[in-house]
Amino acid sequence: MKPVSENELDDLLNILEKHEQELKAFEGVHYVDVGYKFKDGNPIDDILSIRAHVLEKKKLDELDPSQVIPPRIEEILTDVIQSNPEIPFLSKEAANNLKETATNWLVSNKLFDPLRGGIAVWNPRYAFPGTLGMIVFDARTSEPLGLSNHHVFVREQGKQGDPIKQGNINMDPPEPDAVTVVGTLIRSDEGLDCAVCTFNNTRKISKEILRYSQKPTGVRRPLLGMHVTKSGIASGVTYGTIDGVGLRGFTVIPDPARPSPNGEISMGGDSGSVWLDVASFKAVGLHFAGERDPSPRAERAWANQMVKVAKALDIVFG
C-alpha cells in the first residue's frame, strides 16, 4: 500500500474529528477512522477514505435512507468496513492445550531473567496471561516499568498495588509467589487499555523484546502504509501494514510479503504486545484486540497509538 505523509494524514484526521460524532450516530457504527478504501475485501492502494466500521455490512436496499452514510464528506470518499474486534482472553485451560502445539507458547511461557518484552505476564486475580509489551521508563523518575494492557493487568477488579507475575502459568503445582511475582501495578488508563507495573528487583531488566535481534529505539506516530511487526506470546512475531488510523488508535492488516504460518496476525494472549515500525524499530502502538471473523480476508489487528499511551501513563522510551 502506498505510504501516506504526516501532513496528508493530519488533513484527513482533522476532517474526521469534525464529523466523528455524526458518523458514530449511524446505526451499527462502532469505530471510525481514515484509511485505504477497500474493494472486494482488498485495499485500494491510491484511494484514501473516511471509514465507518460496522459489525455487519448491509446492502443499501436493506437500510433506511436516513442510515446510509454519504458517499463523500468534505469531498473525501467514504467507505464502510465490516470488522468485529474482540479481546480473546487466553485462559489457563486454553494455554494448557496450546502449549502442546504452539512453539510460540513454549518459548514465551516460562520464567525469564532478565525480564524483557514479548513474554507471559499476569495479575494473579485472573488466570489469563497476556504479553509484557516492553520495558519503558517513568518520565519523572526514570524508574523502569513493565507495559501491557489494562485488560491484562487490571480488568474489572484489579487495583493499584496488585502483584504482577511472570513465569510458567502452566506449572502444577504453581510456582511460589517468591519466584513468580516480579512487580506491582501502579497506574493504568482504561480508555487507552494500557497499564504499567514497577519491578521488585528480583530479576534483571532488558530493553530487548523476545524474538528480535535489535532493541526498540523510541516511539513514533502510526502512518498509513507503515509496515509494522509485533512479538506476542501466542502468535510470536507477526508482520502487518497499517491500513487505518483513528483519533486514538489504528488497525493493521496482514503483510502479504511476510505472511504468518496460519494467517493470523494476533491471537488470544498477544494482548499487551507492542507494534513496532519495521523501518525505524520505534514503538507505534499497543496491541489490544484481534478480529473475530476467522476468514483470512477479514484478518485485522487493533492497537492504541503509543504516543497517546505514553502521555496517559507518563512514560518514556529509553
From TrEMBL:
Keyword set, alphabetical order: Coiled coil
Coiled coil: 2-29
Name of the molecule in the record: Uncharacterized protein
Organism: Candidatus Jettenia ecosi
